[in-house]
């Protein structure tokens, strides 16, 4: 039985961000080799965060922060269109030794 790339599970990275332009490069660079898609929900950045995320190939959605993390996270989840999701904090970084 052969395995083709379409039968493999896809992994999406989802992040809720606001004014994280300084943190995104380290974070997104570390995770890019492992995910099929990056989805960013921006909650009102004013420092170019969404534009930088687009440079990394992310899908960017805008959502006004409402002091309800559960609602914001739900909105983020709705934006995904792959099978599996990795939600990540802005300071998280993937260990490069993880890849086999």
Automatic annotation (TrEMBL):
Matches recorded under InterPro entries: Glyco_trans_2-like (IPR001173), Nucleotide-diphossugar_trans (IPR029044)
Pfam family, one: Glycos_transf_2
UniProt domain Glycosyltransferase 2-like: residue ranges: 12-65
Residue ranges the record marks as coiled coil: none
Name of this chain's protein: Glycosyltransferase 2-like domain-containing protein
The species this protein was found in: Coleofasciculus chthonoplastes PCC 7420
Taxonomic classification: Bacteria, Bacillati, Cyanobacteriota, Cyanophyceae, Coleofasciculales
């Amino acid at each position: 039985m052969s395995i083709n790339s379409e039968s493999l599970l896809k992994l999406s990275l989802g992040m809720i961000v606001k004014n994280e332009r300084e943190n995104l490069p380290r974070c997104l660079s570390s995770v890019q080799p492992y995910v099929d898609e990056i989805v960013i929900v921006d909650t009102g950045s004013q420092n170019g965060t969404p534009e930088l995320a687009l440079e990394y190939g992310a899908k960017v959605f805008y959502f006004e922060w409402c002091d309800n993390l559960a609602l914001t996270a739900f909105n983020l989840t709705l934006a995904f269109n792959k099978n599996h999701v990795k939600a990540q904090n802005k300071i998280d970084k993937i260990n490069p030794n993880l890849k086999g």
